[in-house]
Amino acid sequence: MPFVCGVSVMMDFKLITKNLLETYLGSDTLSEVAIQDFLASNASVIGTGKQEFFKDIEHFLNSFKFDVEKRKNIHFEFKDLEIEENIVDDQCVFVYGSVKIYGLYDKEVTIIHLDSRFTIIYGVRDGKWKVLHIHHSIPDKEQLEDEEFPITLGKQVQQARHEVEALSAGYSYICLINLETGDVELIKGNNIPGLNGRYTQMDHNILLEQVNRLIAKPFRKSSFEFYDSKTIAKRLEGKNSLFHTCERTDGTWILSMIVPQKYDENGRVVSVLLANRDFTEEKKRELEQEEALRQEKIKAEKANEAKSIFLFNMSHDIRTPMNAIVGYSQLMKKELTNPKLIHYQEMIEQSSQLLLSIINNVLDMARVESGKMELDENYEVVGNITQLVCSAFAAEASRKNIELNIIMNVEHKHIIVDSTKLQEILSNLISNAIKYTSAGGKVTIDTKELPYDKEGYVLIQTKVTDTGIGMSEEFLPSLFELFTRERNTTLSKIPGTGLGMAIVKNFVDLMNGSIEVESELGKGSTFTITIPHKIANKDYTNRNIESSNEFDINFVGKRILLAEDNELNAEITTTILSEMGFEVKAVEDGILCVNEIQHQPANTYDLILMDIQMPNMDGYKATHCIRRLLQPEKANIPIIAMSANAFEEDKKKAFDVKMNDYITKPIDFQKMEEVLKHILSK
């Protein structure tokens, strides 16, 4: 029974060791220093990894930086833990044993399996039991069969024998180097030609010759520098060891370690131990693990690519017929007088918008997960997006008799922001507030400017508060996770995918903002988003105000060439444009579009509406051909892309081929009218 300060204390060192191993294997980041609680400040650590000795705890933690980075997606588990305990005296206990370590990729696929041995020395430091020494190894077959291995090592450390004895357990070659004279004393292993016997001077030419003979070419320079006795003392300043791994000419790997053996009165190292051991099996396992990780990464990338292709095709294939549904619905609305039929039309339109919202959410989340989501910032006036979103949901709020309040208190209103993503954030928050608030309730959107010390920026906070059903405290921690809802559609009778809040969180993070939520069941919720925005300078503001005033333009007599292969979409678009006052000619593919521009006189058309995916020649290629026409009046005609593809790279590609703007299907004809005014006013 160990004693601490004269008081008998029963310690379960087997349990402590188990907890230590769990902490050691469970660390996912370098910032996790829970293992430090176990270690004495001067604890020594020996292992069979890339480093063998560590000067302090921080050095020990930092030494695993490479491994921590590699194992981001690896979950470690250990099984068959066997522990033996040996109480030396009331101040010292050493524990030794074995354990099987498994590394699971994404917690499913086993890619690492290690049979490990360990010895841990516990001692009393400052009145507390601490780890004084750890030796962790992946022994070879001989070591596994040698039951005395951990016990012998523990006694060696406990009895404070020379480093030579500790190293002898695992190293095939050990020598003592006198750094002042350059003499070498062979302690263990075969003689190296030219370095024979006791106190034979280490000659640089001989060292260079041996390095060139034994070490593979890519490692020769670093190996010569490592073994150079003239620089060892300098390199050991502030360190407890030096290590080096390299490949030999026969294809095997070697790990070399240099450890200080003696210091002079000034604390300078004057002699060292050099130890070499075979590192081939560890390197082989390391390379196998790296290859397994590489293959898993390739599989994951292929899966993501397949998902992206599927979403791309799904988006296009759904949006194309959706354009016809939404378009004909809008055309039908103007002809209806029967209240019942008007109601039916409104339900079709609302359901279409819901379906479109679900598609957009799925696509947005896919972009976030792939890391391809980027900000596309532009000029905006604070409050305009809020007004726009509230207008979109005003009918729903009115139908439920919900009071919708907007409060605005902002001094710097002109900002640079990704208006599309900010609109998506507010749309999710406001639509949820209305969705989960019962009839007669209230929804308030309160936007204000907060103090901010970053020059040229403004901090805008928006609170969306409702008097709805609220959320339980237990659900809040998982609110922003994918596909999570406190009540599913079947139970709540309220449709939803569980994607909206995850998208909001990711968009807010992308904009360097923060989001907080307060909620109570039966009383409602408050979502608070706080985002910094760059302030638009006066020139930028005035330029945008002036351009917005130019949008009042008459479309009567303006001619549009419409390139659209889908007959229904062509009919809808032609009808809407004709009602705006345009004269429209439709063609079915890119070749016909280019031919029409080539063969008609310049200025026959004021603008081209160009579908992207068409047979024979797509919209990108057609635009490229038109931009290369010799007549400037034809080459510079405004071209607006129309596409069922909603990915950002599709828009970027459109602008790369010098299209003037981009409209996503299903077409919002009110937005299209604004785009047409903007383009034709220039």
TrEMBL record:
Catalytic activity: ATP + protein L-histidine = ADP + protein N-phospho-L-histidine
Gene3D superfamilies: 1.10.287.130, 3.10.450.50, 3.40.50.2300, Histidine kinase-like ATPase, C-terminal domain
Subcellular location per the Swiss-Prot or TrEMBL entry: Cell membrane
Entry keywords, A to Z: ATP-binding, Cell membrane, Coiled coil, Kinase, Membrane, Nucleotide-binding, Phosphoprotein, Transferase, Two-component regulatory system
Domain Histidine kinase span(s) in chain numbering: 313-535
Residue ranges of domain Response regulatory in the record: 559-680
CDD domains: HATPase_EvgS-ArcB-TorS-like (cd16922), HisKA (cd00082), REC_hyHK_CKI1_RcsC-like (cd17546)
SUPFAM superfamilies to which the protein is assigned, alphabetical: ATPase domain of HSP90 chaperone/DNA topoisomerase II/histidine kinase (SSF55874), CheY-like (SSF52172), Homodimeric domain of signal transducing histidine kinase (SSF47384), NTF2-like (SSF54427)
Any one GO CC term of the record: plasma membrane
Major location category of this protein: membrane
GO molecular function, one term: phosphorelay sensor kinase activity
Pfam families associated with the record: HATPase_c, HisKA, Response_reg, SnoaL_3
Coiled-coil positions: 270-304
Keyword Membrane attached: yes
Modified residues (4-aspartylphosphate): 611
Protein name: histidine kinase
